[in-house]
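Reopening this ticket.

The earlier resolution said the output was attached, but the attachment link was broken on my side. Pasting everything inline this time so it's all in one place.
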Amino acid sequence: MGRGLSASCQLEDEDSRTAIYSYVGDDATLPEGRRAELRGQPGLLAIQKRSLERASKRVKKVRAEGGRTRTVSEPVYHTPDVIGHYEDGDIAVDLCGADKDLLAGRDAGQPLPRIAWNVLLLIYQHYMRHGKLPEHVEFEQ
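Inline output:
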């Protein structure tokens, strides 16, 4: 069963060194009035492009028809170290309303609240798989 967290983010600005996203989160476990108030408080994510991770490559030999072998390279995807990049200063976060609420309660003591972490993870994963930053990202748990 999901926790009722969701978010969407939009690429607002980008240059050769930095990408800036605005994002809005929602926590369905809160009363509707409080949810509406928090949805009206967007946050910002600033990502230093030097921190974007690429997939590593695995090279293997495969047997082709006729008994010959050939070398094949395939990408190996991993989970990006979002918390590490945040702690290194490569990610700056101005929390949205739902994240501020989570940080004051259930996510107290965490380096990043779950909504910002999930959005950043999706941005980094998209970059790793496609080699470019996404214009828009959404998630729902």
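Reporter confirms the inline version is readable. The radius of gyration is 19 Å. Residues 114-130 form the longest helix (17 residues).
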